[in-house]
Amino acid sequence: MVRHLADLPMTIVGSPTFLKTWGNPATAEALAALPFARYALGGITQPLRLPDGTSFIPFGRVDCDSGAALIQAALSGLGAAYLLRCLVAKDLEGGTLVSLAAKFAFPSAPFSALHAFGRTVPLRVKRVCDFIAREAKALAAI
After folding, report:
1. 39, 53, 117, 125 — which has fewest CB within 10 A?
2. Which residue intervals define the domain LysR substrate-binding in the entry (predicted)?
3. Domain boundaries, the chain
4. pLDDT tens-place string over residues 43-75
5. CATH annotation of 8-108
């Protein structure tokens, strides 16, 4: 059984130096032309989804398999990074990362719990899911 817990907002970030070099993209075409630190799962680069439902495979010289690696690549100026906003909120507040393409309302990432209990969920599983849902909603508000 799947229980939807929250929708987590996505953002594109880069270092201040990256912003000075490449500028802030105003169109989807300009965004697609930026070099990215790309998320690769199993060696396959994952697409970046745009608000209108289209997507593109970003180009770039760095492929990462974790959010932490994407953040480090962005901090180092190696490319823009498409990440959960809650992961980079402190960096955005501190100015070590800047939001790129802020006018775009990127689709949120669904966050769900998957369990095998069907409709009769044990109380302990329900309570854990309730707790995670509260915490995830707080993260979505960041």
Report:
1. 53
2. 3-136
3. 8-108, 110-140
4. 899 999 888 888 999 999 999 999 999 999 999
5. 3.40.190.10
